[in-house]
Amino acid sequence: MSSPSAYQRLVQRVAARLPDKAREVFLHPAGPTTIFFWAPTFKWGLVIAGIGDINRPVENISLSQTFSLMMTGLIWSRYSLVIIPKNYNLLSVNAFVALTNVYNFTRGYMYQVQQQQQQQQQGNPKKRDKKK
């Protein structure tokens, strides 16, 4: 068996100085010494951006972008409950990514439907006039 890397030795030294409860969290398979902690933590930036988009003018909302983020959030939320160990940090961030983008997608979609209805209403009287 190979000797532990410098990183692993550092993690073990830090863990040895922590109280028992903190050591459990620190050394958890999805704890702060792994990518499984840091990736979802930084992904909260997408949630903050989604919340910021709530104030964005509705005509500037990209349906394809919000739809893809919404679906990504749903897929990764499900994945976080299937993997071992379950990663509740990953679940929470992806649930919020999905929720903020469901809201923004709905706003954008309703706006586009409303615009199409207005265009049809403006176009229909002309067709009626031609028939007369």
UniProtKB/TrEMBL annotation:
Pfam families: MPC. Its main location: mitochondrion. It is a multi-pass membrane protein. Transmembrane segments: none annotated. It is found in: Mitochondrion inner membrane. Keywords: Membrane, Mitochondrion, Mitochondrion inner membrane, Transmembrane, Transmembrane helix, Transport. The keyword Membrane applies. GO terms for cellular component: mitochondrial inner membrane. Mediates the uptake of pyruvate into mitochondria. Belongs to the mitochondrial pyruvate carrier (MPC) (TC 2.A.105) family. This is Mitochondrial pyruvate carrier. It comes from Trichogramma kaykai. The lineage of its organism: Eukaryota, Metazoa, Ecdysozoa, Arthropoda, Hexapoda.
